[in-house]
Amino acid sequence: MTPGRGTVIGRRLGEPVHVRWSVRADGDFHRVDVPLADLERRRRRLVDLPWTMLDEHHGTDVVVVDHPGGNDGASGDVAFTSLSGAALGCWVGDCAPVVLVGEQREFAVVHAGWKGLAAGVVDVAVDTFTEPVIEAYLGPCIGACCYEFGAADLASVADGIGAPVSTITGRTRDGTRALDVPAAVALVCARRSVPLRSLGSCTGCSFDGFSHRVRQERERHVVVAWQGGPA
């Protein structure tokens, strides 16, 4: 296996969904900055299947992948499919990459930064499924420890996820007001009765990946999900 980390989701009735995430040693997965040939080599080293990675814009647009590798580079923040052999990737620096798993065949990857959370992107993704969503997995993202945040933007996120501001407000290491992104994702999943498991730590201070907010890095790591193909 490459330096990326991986796990297998096993509690569904249909074919298991695999989730893997990259680390620094796997290289930059920036969908725009990295030449496509280099990006493809890195993707195939991580998971040797046709990939779809969206041109993410912190919105709520859903892209349906109807064949492996379909709509790679399309504009959107939710990639959704029921296919085997299709790898769906979410490239991030600090935003939350969320994998949603349906009971039988469907799964999705969601790019959930603070603007996406404020716009309701996780709810939009759950509503795309035609079968019950039974699991959610949160990849490495920035924690409250490293994410100082203003009161107005905190209120926007709280409104978007339908929760009190106090439930997503944390403190940084310096004691300033912060947005707790993992808590925000967890609250949406709890409201939708979807069990959530965290797969990584804070991109700002403890995860072996990239951070735009803390280190002003342009590089991105990736979380990828697939069913069928290599384990």
Give descriptors for this structure.
single chain; 231 residues; alpha+beta; CNF1/YfiH-like putative cysteine hydrolases; six-stranded mixed β-sheet; five-stranded mixed β-sheet; 6 helices; 13 strands; 22% helix
Total strands:
13
Terminus-to-terminus distance: 10 Å
What is the SS-derived class?
alpha+beta
CATH homologous superfamily label: CNF1/YfiH-like putative cysteine hydrolases
CATH class: Alpha Beta
Helix content: 10-25%
How many domains would you count in the coordinates?
1
List unreliable stretches of 5+ residues.
none
Ordered list of secondary-structure elements with their pairings:
Elements: E1 5-9, E2 17-21, H1 36-46, E3 51-53, E4 62-64, E5 78-81, E6 87-92, E7 96-102, E8 107-112, H2 114-119, H3 121-128, E9 133-138, H4 151-161, E10 169-171, E11 177-179, H5 181-191, E12 196-198, H6 212-215, E13 221-227
Parallel strand pairs: 3-6, 4-5, 9-12
Antiparallel strand pairs: 1-2, 2-13, 5-8, 6-13, 7-8, 7-9, 10-11
